[in-house]
Amino acid sequence: MSKKIGIIAEDLSDIEVISEILGKYISQRDFSVKRFVGNGCGKLKSKCNSWASLLSKSGCDHILLFHDLDRNDEAKLRGDLERKVGKDQFPNSLIVIPIGEMEAWLLTDPAAIKKVFGLPKDPKVPAQPESIDSPKEHLRDVIWKSGKKRYMNTTHNRKIASETSLDRLMICKSYSKLDTYIRESICA
After folding, report:
1. pTM of the entire structure?
2. What pLDDT does 127 receive?
3. DSSP state letter for 88
4. How far is the C-alpha of 69 from the C-alpha of 78, rounded, in Å?
5. Architecture of domain 3-100+172-186 in this structure
6. pLDDT tens sequence across 137-178
7. Rounded to whole angstroms, what are the CA distances from 174 to 64, 101, 102?
8. Which among 59, 60, 13 has a CA at the least distance from the CA of 37?
9. Residue from 63, 56, 44 nearest 6 by CA
């Protein structure tokens, strides 16, 4: 039976990255995604409760909410989001706050970046991608320095995610919570 997974995220490229990641755990034909895109964090914060309600009413088995940490305080941001999309109201939900930005997750696998961009060798990526202040810009710069290729998150994030190893993603503390939820709740 196909699982319906509701995803709420800041932009469409985040939805595409998560869909690619889900496909590493579950066959693409065994799940479908319904989504809401905030086009930034302001609208996401103000609408996430109503969007989660709509996803739940439309039959989503799980609701995943993604909000980049950016320069926010993680405990405060998580508290704000949990008041709107909490386990009491949405028991099969998870709030995921990528440290920095979701692009930090994409910086975990230099072989994936090399393959997507046809680079001559693996680019140098930080050992702890979540320690980077602006992962999206850092990813752009790494790709440019490695092969003079232009990076566009709207085009390339999905492609990098499709090639990224789950083992490499586990470098990121914020990703490990998603991994646990997928394995124990969605795949169970």
Report:
1. 0.95
2. 95
3. T
4. 9
5. 3-Layer(aba) Sandwich (3.40)
6. 999 999 999 999 999 999 999 999 999 999 999 999 999 999
7. 13, 10, 9
8. 13
9. 63
